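Reopening closed ticket. The problem is back. First fold of the pair:
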Amino acid sequence: MLALAGTCAVAGITATGSMATGPKAPTGSHLFHGPIEKFYSGGHTFGMDDLAYGGKGKFRTIKATDATTYKKLSGFGALHKGLKVDVTSHHEDAATWIADKISKAPASPIPSGVTIHFRQPKKFVGFVFSKHPRICASGRGVKLFRQKGNKQRPGRDVKFQRTTLASKQPNGKYKWVIRTKHPSGPGKYYARIGKFADCQKDTSKTIHVR
């Protein structure tokens, strides 16, 4: 049997539960994050590159209304091309989203990290965390590595299984889980989260499994 001989770490790891393609705000609305790319004439409408969409970018058309609220911005007139914003919105139609709230995005990279633990009989678990979890924790890809030497070297160490995603739990935390089909053997393991949207990448400390 494998037993944990170390403490937890700060790294990203896989999650067995599937995640949505992009972060979602409460009550079914969607959270978009990224720079404003263009403005449309004839209304308070703009287009933005949504980096929160799997961290890869997806163009969104956003329409502000009289009901739209602003945070750290004086109003629609404070928006400009290149400004990074967080937009909580809902569908108007297939192509346009109505902005419920537009906020000035936090400075990047946005701090985020991950933890790792080993649980009997054959399960690695941990959490991805951030001050802005809907951007940097929701759906965050995590990789597990088996360390070969005295130092972490992701390019040389053995990548364990495929990348999985952190999923939101009822307590509001974002958890990842890797269940191994076969005993992975004694050794040193760590988790890693790569660059995602404007989120900071991170690697956990190494844990020792016996």
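Second fold of the pair, where the issue appears:
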Amino acid sequence: MAGVAAMTASALVALTAVTGFAADKPVFGLVMSFSGWFAPVDADTIAGAKLAVSEINAAGGVLGQPIEVVEFDNKSEPPLGADGAVWFTQPHADKVGRITSGGYITEVALPAGGVPLGIAAGSDRNLWVTVVRAPVIYRVTPKGDITPFPMPAKSMATFITAGPDGNLWFTEPNGKVGRITTSGDVTEFVFSNPYDEDK
């Protein structure tokens, strides 16, 4: 739990800075599975996020203002493509898959060794996929066409989600969050960890 709280605290500081809320009241959007089959998995992250907010607010908040947590329940719903199918990653097979409402499954192979992890539907009606063993993010069309978009060296995108600005936002385990536009332009935001035990 302490590790989750520390990582979440860093994300809170970064997100309030890069999303422009710092000038007003800092707001942290917690988009998680509060219900549904994935809720038990997200429970620790939710608890860690709330603990981190509590600790940051107790220390004076962000720029002297307390962080407000806004919760959104994604109800454990997986990404839906523009084709109406559910899309998912297959990390051990280096593939992404789609399943229709009728149960028909098709797969799209990605370059070997990348280990796909995160997937999200973009505002461009395509799927965006992160891989954890290569500095690249893939765009996959509903027809299965793949376009790689390189990231800076030593970068590694993990989880990804569509933002209200029409871009995709992703996390990195190296003290960064990133944004990729639907044209493939990548911007990374570096932040320090106020809970770094080495300091």
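Update: turned out to be a display glitch only; the data is intact. The radius of gyration is 17 Å. Residues 86-190 form a domain with the Neuraminidase fold (CATH 2.120.10.30). Please close again.
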